[in-house]
Write a structure and sequence with these properties.
Mean pLDDT: 85
GO molecular function, one term: kinase activity
Structural class: alpha+beta
Distance between the termini: 54 Å
Low-confidence stretches: none
Strand content: 15-25%
CATH topology of the largest domain: Jelly Rolls
Domain HTH crp-type: 148-216
Helix content: 40-55%
InterPro entries: cNMP-bd_dom, cNMP-bd_dom_sf, Env_Response_Regulators, HTH_CRP, RmlC-like_jellyroll, WH-like_DNA-bd_sf, WH_DNA-bd_sf
Domain Cyclic nucleotide-binding: 14-117
CATH architecture of the largest domain: Sandwich
Protein name: cAMP-binding domain of CRP or a regulatory subunit of cAMP-dependent protein kinases
Largest sheet: 4 strands, antiparallel
Radius of gyration: 19 Å
Order of helices and strands: HHEEEEEEHEEHHHEHHEEH
Length: 232
């Protein structure tokens, strides 16, 4: 693991609340796992024998419904962790995980971590904090689906990816538009219409890159009452 990757792992939800000595203890026995685009890390309903921290790349978490439809639950990137809650309870993964770009992950053995948690309440509290972070993300995701228009959801997605906070900004779209649509709870054609609508707000989509004229203007769009569109 490179120094930069170690720093990424230390700042993750799993390790971020621990003092350095306990971080080292948690990292004992961890392994670097690489994944090519399209490679499966684990399948839905497999025993959860590990939890993961993304060091680089993008990972898709998804479920397959009884009718065969794929539902994208989340897309994880550098610094995000997943699999904690089920791995620490010895359950099965409720989702499948697949690399959607070449990726590097830190794999922590669930059995080893469970042993540490049983002997150290500080570690147990840290893990609870990590699961709370994921709960917050899910609540925010549900709020976005329920309380924001499709255009607002896409705008917020671009703001989250943007490397700048003000002025003009160019944003690389990290994965294909069909997956973006699934992540945002849309159909691909709805996403295309949302991209077209964003031109009115100074956003131009050019292949796999979004060009934003004014970050503040786009931020104002995400805060706007979705019902306002009906009054225009």
């Amino acid at each position: 693991m490179t120094p930069a990757e170690l720093e990424t792992a230390r700042k993750s939800a799993v390790l971020g609340n621990l003092p350095p000595p306990l971080q080292e203890k948690m990292l004992e026995g961890s392994q670097i796992q690489t994944a090519d685009t399209g490679q499966t890390l684990f399948l839905q309903d497999e025993p959860a024998d590990a939890l993961f921290i993304v060091l680089d790349g993008w990972i898709k978490l998804y479920r397959i419904a009884a009718n065969g439809t794929e539902a994208v639950v989340s897309v994880m990137t550098r610094g995000r962790s997943f699999g904690e809650a089920v791995a620490l309870r010895g359950l099965s993964y409720p989702v499948a995980a697949e690399a959607i770009t070449p990726s590097r992950l830190l794999r922590l053995d669930a059995l080893r971590i469970r042993h540490h948690l049983q002997s150290d309440p500080v570690m147990a509290t840290s893990m609870l904090a990590a699961t709370f972070v994921h709960l917050q993300h899910l609540v925010e995701q549900i709020e976005g689906l329920k309380a924001r228009s499709g255009v607002q959801r896409v705008a917020e997605f671009l703001l989250d990816l943007a490397p700048c906070t003000e002025g003009e900004c160019s944003v690389a779209l990290p994965y294909n538009k069909a997956l973006i649509a699934g992540r945002l709870g849309m159909k691909p054609e709805t996403l295309s219409r949302a991209f077209a609508r964003l031109r009115e707000h100074g956003v131009r989509i050019d292949a796999a890159r979004a060009h934003i004229e004014d970050m503040d203007r786009l931020r104002q769009l995400t805060a706007e009452d979705p019902a306002k569109a009906w009054l225009r």
